[in-house]
Amino acid sequence: MTEVIRTQTPPILHGPSDKEKKYDRQLRLWAASGQQALEEAHILLVNSGIGKFTIADKAIVEEADLGVNFFLDEESLGKPRSEACVKLLQELNPDVKGDWYQLEKDQPLQTLLDQQKFTLLMYSLPIEPETLLTIQNYANENKLPLFSIHSAGFYSAFRIHLPGSFPIVDTHPESTTTPDLRLRTPWKGLSDFAAEITADIDIQEAREHGHIPYVALILHYLIEWKEKHGSIPSEYAEKKEFAKFLAAKARTNNPEGGEENFDEGVASVLKLLHEPKLEGSVKEIFDHEPNGLEAKSSFWIIAGAVKKFYEKHKALPLPGSVPDMKAQSNVYVKLQNIYKAKAREDVAEVLESVRAHPLGKDIPTTEVEVFCKNAAFIKLVNGAGSKTSDVVNIANEEFKSDQMAANNPEFGMRFSLLPIYLALNATCYFASATSSEILATINKIVPEASSNPRLVQAAEEVARAKGGELHNISSLTGGMVAQEIIKIITKQYIPIDNTCIYDGITSRTQIFKI
Amino acid sequence: MSQPVMISGTMAISEPKKDRWTYLNNVRLHKGPFVAEDFEGTEEAVQQVESAFKVLVIGAGGLGCEILKNLALSGFKCIDVIDMDTIDVSNLNRQFLFRASDVGSSKAEVAAKFVEKRVKGVTITPHNCKIQDKDDDFYMQFNLVVCGLDSVEARRWINSTLVNLVDDNNPDSLKPLIDGGTEGFSGHTRTILPTLTSCIECQLDMHAPRQAVPLCTLATIPRQPEHCIEWAHIIAWEQEHPFPALDNDDPEHITWLYKKALARAEEFKITGVTYSLTQGVVKNIIPAIASTNAIIAASCCNEAFKIATNTNPYLGPEDNYMMYNGTASIYTHTMVHDKKDDCPVCGNLAMDLSVDPNITLEDFIASLAERAESQLKKPSIRADTTLYMQSPPSLEEQTRPNLIKKIGELVGNGDEIGVTDPSLGTVNFKYRLNFSKEFKAVEGTES
After folding, report:
1. Least CA distance to A456: which residue of chain B?
2. Range of B261's domain?
3. Any one cellular component term from GO for this entry (chain B) (predicted)?
């Protein structure tokens, strides 16, 4: 996989390369940078479309494996499960390297771990305590993400253990997120542009008037509003009034009976007049004290510079993008350039303080640019602000809310999925157990488990499966795990923090920080 | 990396041993705490599903490949699959039953053959055609339909077909429809019990159409790279006709559009036109990844398995829709969509529609394409008389003069109209038109 995916516009006559064609539908989600990160990854799967993966397992393929695993066939019977499975998985994508490792008494997992370098580890439950300990130690020592996965009958759960705090810059916020256009606090370049284009607004010809971009309309009428009311609208009711005021300024003596640019402005003005507030996730990053190792990373150096910028300007660096709005082409491009110029100015200021940092000399400018563009949406997973809770505390909270749900069926509240996690966890070393054995194990953690009807049901359902996986449930869980792996390796989008429980009976998931 | 290892097909293989389905039998043969009272849990019941339960899979693409594999490993033995497409290189990142050597072959045929070979004892019959090519008798033979489609039109067609198959005197005529869909990291699974629960048409406003860019923006004031591409696609192509017919899959055609769009973007100083964006806009490409397909397909097949085997309650009678979003953490929302009395497929009441009587019938028809609940691209309309018919050509010609007439000239305030579109099956909208303005009989100025 040495072929490089171009990040720039290809020269005019070049269509996409073969590789770009093959990965087209996913490059649209995580771009060339994300794809490269995936190809460099080496994943270890213990017990059971990345650059390289290795499966370590001790099982020999039996008849029942063929009923649940699509990547085994009749020829696999009697062979090591890891070998047979890797062989058929390889057909999926010949560009991916697959390896297998047969776990035996004289071939423990430690030997494999000593020989190879991995980027991420996963294991499926149930598992022997010794093997589990080996994996956990290795992940801790090498600071690697570790996934634990458990699927039985109609239930599944998986948990991600990340090594320390995990910051994400490219979180891909929803496209419906309101852009930061600084209409409450325009800088001079923007005010001048608005003043110029609205100078003779009342006598403009129909075509011109109907093409004033709404950014300029809002800024213009905010000045008029301020003259009358003393300040720009802050309260919700005032903003509503302003929207009406703006709507009334549209010309209606035309065949359309209104103007689209005004309509667009009225539709977005409430959101655009939001007072800028730092998102909790950004605040968490600003409040985070990076530890010795973290402090040397480019993320935390840039974060420090952006924090300084924020403290000085009471605003984050401007992202610099402008949503589409009705306007003449040249006017719109001019407006875009005004926003871009300001964004570049902000980047320059942040870059200056990054460079002033003793370790900031070699940080690529593009990394600072990307950080500034996404500053409002950066996110820290596993930070100090998201302490794990004790299972007992979570159980108390969940069961209290379940009680309420049971007493008030008319509210349509859904029951907690925590019982599923507790019941699965009671079988994490031994697959098969009776419901009373499962309840007894849970009782050691959550007292009086047997008197909770939902715990009893979860225990019975887990016991019913006798540790057997259903292909659908495992495939679905594998899909969720794969999404999380992609997010962690590409450092794009936001992974779960940290446990996901799936109920295939009611078709629901629930996330817990355990 | 060496060539993929091919499995030789020479081994004589008998029916798989009974142990094969140990794990499925744990739940098929044993009661759980949530099973319905009529759960049998017998070998006979299992046999019945395996030998007689017929499933139709619509679509053999990203979801379809996963669905076929999942059904085969869920104990279904009689499966049909229908897809009119052939395999493209860009399918290979996720449509895991296809290899580079299959490019150009029928998706339905290659997928069926692969799964049949891997999971012994399963029969998969491929149909390399459109769903519209099959008649009611074809659809009547199945017990359940699972859809893995990327087209709203095809969903609407199969939905209305299955609703219309329902005969109150024949319980077998009610075929549950399970529909999956994905986009990027998110997706949905829904179960429809035709005529009993909310149908795809009842939920159509969930899939609001993309707002079309006005033609005048494309023609005179482009601002975005997409505007330049749409201009090349809609206007420049029509004017210059560089090739006899536009083929979205022909790189030469896409390159032509890309170059045109790029030149226009340069003229207006717009940045961001790329080959990939051109292709994305022209083909309306929705980003797709293997993992999301795995999640949604497995969720659909889990519902199919529960419906067929009764091993646990399924989506449908109460909650009937599961929304999945994996972009920020994992979030699912499982809920009930209510059946609509004024649904054009499974309801019978007229829907109120506010309309300006001064617009022309042509503009009214165009507005139906953009309304979230109708999304009709080629509708025919009747009131007391036929106002406009798309076909046959003779009727189209006869009713065409009505297109330039004002709504107020053709119908009265409060009148009911019927709107149909045969390309979507028997979708029949009943609208009660309420005039939003006074009708001015005098000619107004054209906009």
Report:
1. B33
2. 215-282
3. nucleus
When pLDDT is cut at 50, 70 and 90, the band that residue B3 belongs to is very low
Q: Which of A69, A70, A79 to mutate to test the interface with B (most CBs of B within 10 A)?
A: A70
Instruction: Tell me, yes or no, whether B10 lies in a domain.
Output: no
CA distance B187 to B202: 19
**H or E element at residue B75:** none
Residue B17 lies in a domain: no
Question: Into how many domains does chain B fold?
Answer: 3
pTM for this prediction: 0.90
pLDDT mean over A320-347: 95
Give the pLDDT confidence of A235-251 residue by residue, as tens digits.
999 999 999 999 999 99
Indicate which residues of B carry an active-site annotation.
216
Residue B66, chain A, CB below 8 Å: the answer is yes
**Does B203 share its domain with B220?**
no
Residue B192 CB contacts under 8 Å (≥ 6 apart), including other chains: B159, B162, B176, B177, B178, B179, B198, B199, B200, B316, B320
B272 plus B295 within the same structural domain: no
What's the gap in Å between the CA of B352 and the closest CA on chain A? 23
Which chain A positions have a beta carbon within 8 Å of B315's beta carbon?
Answer: 507
Residues B160 and B308 in one domain: yes
Q: How many CB pairs under 8 A join A and B?
A: 267
A20 contact residues in B (CB cutoff 8 A): 276
Q: Is residue B445 part of a domain?
A: no
Q: What is the DSSP letter of A91?
A: T
Which pLDDT tens digit goes with each residue over B127-147? 999 999 999 999 999 999 999
pLDDT band at B268 (very low <50, low <70, confident <90, very high): very high
Residues B257 and B177 in one domain: no
Model confidence at A12: pLDDT above 60: no
B324, B410 in Cβ contact below 8 A? no
pLDDT, average across residues B164-178: 94
CA distance A512 to A499: 5
In a domain, B134, yes or no: yes
- Architecture of the domain spanning A22-167+470-512: 3-Layer(aba) Sandwich (3.40)
> Within 10 Å of residue A126's Cβ, how many Cβ atoms?
16
